[in-house]
Design goal:
Helix content: 55-70%
InterPro entries: TPR-like_helical_dom_sf
Radius of gyration: 26 Å
Protein name: Tetratricopeptide repeat protein
Strand content: under 5%
Order of helices and strands: HHHHHHHHHHHHHHHHHHHHHHHHHH
Region (Disordered): 202-223
Length: 516
């Protein structure tokens, strides 16, 4: 009844309240109740009361709509935005990110764009608009819509092409000009500086002891939310940065310790997943397995079932790579994870299908891998970004070579390498261009003639030399490299192969990409 008749019951109650002349007073009490529920509950979202609060918020989602509607009628958009800004998705809890996006989009739409021209820098603030009940100081009230807009941006999950669209880039530029990052104020959304700052790469290099990136504490000794989330995000990004994996692992350790200390169960799960990825990148497979298993248990306890399939798929990859299960079992585990992800949207199953397709192709089932990748391309056809297209072009090129069509592989690999200087690729997948160079070496090694063999030798030399130091070479990569080397040695002879490969080791990425 609650969901089927809620609107009807609400209309009936409104009519009775109008008759009694009590609508305004009741709306006000309703509004204050849900405003304070969101405002006072936000700190509990980051500690031991997290599970309880998520349950309360989930049960209150529908009944909190009327006060927001009342705010819309009265036109008090700034207070509505301030009220929505602590919504449960405003941090890192992915299960409620959709609610955060929906509520803040509605709230921001009540008033003018807080980032419209002329853009004025935000005032320096040491507190948030939700730290104390109204009335708010004018500066805090003004920042409500800005905080709401940033919550929407961080949690927005739709057409991936929007990231590079002129409209989104204009919006980001306007937000950069307004939002101040670092002392004395932190971004109104934890981790917002990573989204907003073109200087994020430089900020990520700061040592943990610097004021704006360390686990500094509030007066009561509670680590700042922005600092602990920054450590967590930086750990994930540094996994991809050449020579920064050690720092990334230290950040992962520190963020996990902080989240455990404050009792943030979701933060613990995210930190465990990030640390597992760090271990996996370094080849510490036993440690990665341990962290993935604990992360799965953590998100299950929270009821965040949307995260379980992806974590299971990562665990399956680690178990297969470590030799804990055979290839057939690893494939079965990936299929089970894919079944669990059904109905959760294509983004949830994206990594699983990529991993499964690679496993299928490796075992000689290239037709099944193609079908899987074709379906993936079709689903993302209208909302793909350069990184996704480059990844798929490289995989298609690899499959072409496996199928005995190396000449058809090369155009795909050349296209994949066109994004080698893309800032987003460099930020989240710095190793990808080197993988594409190796695909190119493999394709040339399967083509007849000394010229192709020499090109392949140079490419394999460049791919190895440019590969980020400390990055673990997975067994599938090692098998392809060894097969490529064997073919090139047979074609050129050991001495010529070593000489030409050494030449390739001195090439820049630009020079190597031109050879493909």
């Amino acid at each position: 009844m609650r969901y089927r008749l809620l609107e009807t019951v609400g209309e009936y109650a409104g009519e009775r309240l109008d008759e009694a002349g009590e609508r305004t007073a009741v709306e006000r009490r309703h509004l204050v109740h849900y405003r304070e529920l969101a405002r006072t509950g936000e700190p509990l979202l980051r500690g031991p009361g997290q599970r309880t609060l998520l349950g309360v918020w989930s049960a209150s989602t529908t009944t909190s709509a009327p006060p927001c509607a009342a705010r819309r009628v009265r036109g008090t958009s700034r207070r509505c935005c301030a009220w929505c800004s602590p919504s449960p998705g405003s941090g890192s809890c992915a299960t409620t990110a959709r609610d955060a996006c929906t509520w803040t989009e509605a709230a921001v739409g009540l008033g003018p764009d807080p980032f419209a021209e002329p853009v004025e820098p935000a005032p320096p603030l040491t507190e948030r608009c939700i730290d104390a009940p109204p009335p708010m100081r004018p500066e805090l009230l003004t920042e409500g819509p800005a905080a709401g807009a940033l919550v929407w941006m961080v949690n927005h999950d739709t057409d991936m092409r929007l990231i590079n669209s002129p409209e989104m880039q204009r919006d980001v530029a306007q937000r950069r000009r307004r939002v101040r990052v670092g002392p004395p104020a932190e971004p109104p959304v934890p981790g917002g500086h990573v989204v907003l700052r073109p200087a994020a790469h430089r900020r990520l290099r700061r040592p943990c002891g610097s004021p704006s990136t360390s686990s500094s504490t509030l007066p009561r000794g509670r680590p700042r939310l922005g600092a602990r989330l920054h450590l967590q995000q930086r750990a994930k990004l540094l996994n991809e940065r050449p020579g920064r994996a050690d720092q990334g692992l230290r950040d992962a350790h520190e963020s996990l310790e902080i989240f455990r200390r404050v009792g943030d169960a979701w933060g613990v799960a995210e930190a465990l997943s990030g640390r597992a990825e760090s271990h996996e990148r370094r080849g510490a497979l036993a440690e990665a397995e341990r962290d993935y298993r604990e992360a799965i248990d953590s998100v299950r306890d929270l009821g965040a079932i949307a995260q379980v399939p992806m974590l299971k798929a990562r665990l399956a990859d680690v178990l297969t790579e470590a030799g804990r299960v055979d290839d057939a079992t690893g494939e079965r585990l990936l299929l089970e994870a894919l079944d669990e992800a059904e109905g959760m949207g294509p983004d949830t199953s994206f990594f699983i299908r990529i991993s499964l397709g690679v496993r299928l192709a490796r075992r000689g089932r290239t037709a099944a891998a193609r079908e899987l990748f074709d379906n993936l391309m079709e689903e993302f056809r209208n909302r793909s970004i350069k990184l996704f297209l480059a990844l798929m072009d490289g995989l298609y090129g690899w499959i072409e070579t496996l199928d005995g069509n190396p000449a058809a592989a090369l155009p795909r690999i050349r296209r994949a390498l066109e994004v080698r200087d893309d800032p987003f690729v460099l930020l989240v997948a710095a190793h990808l261009p080197m993988a594409h160079l190796m695909y190119g070496a493999y394709a040339h090694s399967e083509l007849p003639g000394e010229e192709h063999a020499m090109t392949g030798a140079r490419l394999i030399g460049a791919a190895v030399a440019l590969r980020p130091a400390g990055l673990y070479e997975a067994s599938i990569e090692r098998e392809m490299r060894e097969r490529t080397e064997a073919s090139l040695r047979a074609a050129l002879g050991d001495e010529a192969y070593e000489r030409v490969r050494a030449e390739g080791g001195g090439l820049t990425l630009e020079e190597a990409a031109a050879l493909v």
